[in-house]
Amino acid sequence: MRTLRNSRMNPLASLIVRFLAIFVLVLVVLAAAWPVISPTYTKWIAGAARVGFHAVEAPNVSALEVRDGTLWIHRIVGPGQISPFTWFDRFTFFALVPLVALFAATPGLGWVRRMVRLSISLGLLFVIQAGYIVISVQLAYAAMGLSTVGAFVARTLEGWQVLVRVLWDAAPLALWIAFTAGVWSRRLRALRQDRKSTTRGVHHTGIAGLRTEVRKGWES
Amino acid sequence: MRTTHKRTFRRYLPSVAGGAIALAGLLLLASHDAAMMHIQRVLAVASSGILNLFGQDTVVVGTTVQSNLFGITVVTACTGLFITGLFLVAVMAFPTRWRSKAIGVGIGIGGIFVVNIVRLVSLYFIGIHWPGFLDAAHQLVWQSLLIVVAVALWLLWAGRWAYAHAPQ
Questions:
Q1: Whose CA is closest to A92, among A61, A119, A117, A128?
Q2: For the segment A3-35, what is each residue's pLDDT rounded down to a tens digit?
Q3: Where are the domains of chain A?
Q4: What residues have CB less than 8 Å from A97, skipping those under 6 apart?
Q5: A166 at the B interface (CB within 8 A)?
Q6: Smallest Cα–Cα separation from A200: which of A4, A3, A15, A12?
Q7: What is the ipTM of this complex?
Q8: Which residue from A85, A186, A217, B23 has the fewest beta carbons nearer than 10 Å?
Q9: Interface contact flag, A173 B148, Cβ < 8 Å
Q10: Closest approach of chain A CAs to the CA of B21, in angstroms?
């Protein structure tokens, strides 16, 4: 009975262990490559964020600079004059690494579907990360009285900052869930069916075994 | 047809409402400074207690764990609140019976809390013995490990408790 119970646990345990192992493996490889990836990726983010700043600021008061993988936000304080306002270090955009690792570790996705979904997720994460730079800096300007916002936003400014922070933190996980929830649902449902059929098999074996014993008894 | 819709609506409404309430609770908690300070303090005290078991002579000042050798400050981002919150939203939004959800809440809060303590203790030791690796361990390794631990805990809960009682 003990062996049967253990064998019922095994598929779930092996699924989780396999998932963790692949995740850690991909994470280690990509984390080692991050110092190489980070400066280029930060430049791309800065390019997209610049478009965002130009769209929301009139006149444009923010200037962006990428130095050693760190994204600096400068505030234009006068003609030809800028002063550093804040910075986002080389770890800020690391979330794309766990996102790739999560997709790599997801079981039951074909390579084509995996690549398509990963590409869409990475695209969305890129937009979210560039958007986060723009929105968080705009909220910081408003909090410091450097820009004016509507009465409602001013009253609920702290709440907006928390919301943006939560969305930022949750983004990679939320994207992965959105694109793989169906796969996991099918996988877990299949495990449940397996468990049910195993349980039925146990009863079956039990009854069949009993019958064999009875027959043996008759025969003897 | 309408009856089927009604049944589906009734079956999933409590889960969706539960997920929404968990999300609202997370946002309220995150914007409540006193509550966040309390959580940070609990983590700092627990980490300090464990470090002292390993012979480190640490004290807690505010939300900072410090010794003669090194110090770590527990800030909002270090509480694992966002990951725990997301875990709870995923548990509450899952259509299964309330008893299974209660188990999921316990696993999420307890499991992520324990992993977070391990994280803080390990960062303290890395800070002392391998300071050059501290930034990477803090922002790259543990950030990712917290995510995958939360996912693994959720899978464990979903496979072991939630799907067993989920509607067909």
A1: A128
A2: 444 445 578 888 899 999 999 999 999 988 998
A3: 2-36+95-194
A4: A27, A30, A31, A34, B140, B144
A5: yes
A6: A4
A7: 0.76
A8: A217
A9: no
A10: 15
